[in-house]
Amino acid sequence: MDVVIAAAPYVMGHETLIQLRVLDSTTRKAAEKRLSAAEKLSAIGQMAAGIAHEVRNPLTTVKGFVQLLQKQVSHSYFDIIVEELDNAIKTLNNLLQVAKPDLDDEPSVSIHLCPELDSLIFLFQEKLYNIKVTKVFLDQDKQISGKKNLLFKAFFNLIKNALESIEGKGELTIEHFYKDGVIHLKFKDSGVGIPEEQMKMLGTPFFSTKNDGTGMGLTQVFTTIHQHGGSINVTSKLGQGTTFHLQLPANHLCSAK
Ligand SMILES: Nc1ncnc2c1ncn2[C@@H]1O[C@H](COP(=O)(O)OP(=O)(O)OP(=O)(O)O)[C@@H](O)[C@H]1O
Ligand SMILES: [Mg+2]
């Protein structure tokens, strides 16, 4: 808990007393932290989105011309060129989606999160030979109002990270429960954990410790959860695992246009 203690002299008749005020500033501190994280994201995001937009257009044109050439001349390199261009365009599209979510005009709908989580886990079937997935889904009737695809992608990114953090055998537990107007989701893995000094980097665009990572996964997660009026708390122990605890207001209107 964060507290602010303020002392002030207080004269009462002939006596001078000291008035002590003890304020719980936990909520204020958390709000400040969230705000500065959101500002950081929006400044870097806007710059990145501008660049992504400028680079994507010429790449799309190049791809079109390569495909035209491919019709006239045959060469095995063309397929590789088109594939690599597709990868680059996909990365830029991902970047644009998280940095400029207003490009996405998906409507807000009422969503039951448990079936969404179920279908996501199903997507990772072939990765689950060595990893035991436990689902603790309570209060399944509760709904949130939000953008299904954005949320789906955010949960996908969290599960992907959790599975990637596990070397060999391990466990992933996903919890869903409702308390006081808020839906809680926990993604708890038994993976490698996150070093203390990297914790504050989580969610920063392009921060990645993986050879093939884009570092955009958690940026998408943080942006989406904040847009839905939610918050994220991460706890981790090296060598033991990491928990991402999401809190989403049950009936919040998403701010992504
Ligand atoms: N569950 C987790 N356990 C351990 N480390 C994690 C976990 N989730 C995220 N991280 C750390 O945070 C970094 C950033 O994650 P993020 O999802 O943004 O990018 P990435 O996973 O590296 O790349 P991409 O999502 O594009 O594959 C990761 O590289 C990893 O170091
Ligand atoms: Mg990731």
From TrEMBL:
Coiled-coil features, chain-numbered ranges: none
Domain Histidine kinase span(s) in chain numbering: 50-252
Top-level lineage group: Bacteria
One term of GO molecular function: ATP binding
Protein keywords: ATP-binding, Kinase, Nucleotide-binding, Phosphoprotein, Transferase, Two-component regulatory system
Record-listed E.C. numbers: 2.7.13.3
InterPro entries: HATPase_C_sf (IPR036890), HATPase_dom (IPR003594), His_kinase_dom (IPR005467), HisK_dim/P_dom (IPR003661), HisK_dim/P_sf (IPR036097), Sig_transdc_His_kin-like_C (IPR004358)
One Pfam family from the record: HATPase_c
Catalytic activity entry: ATP + protein L-histidine = ADP + protein N-phospho-L-histidine
Protein name, entry field: histidine kinase
Protein's organism: Cohnella rhizosphaerae
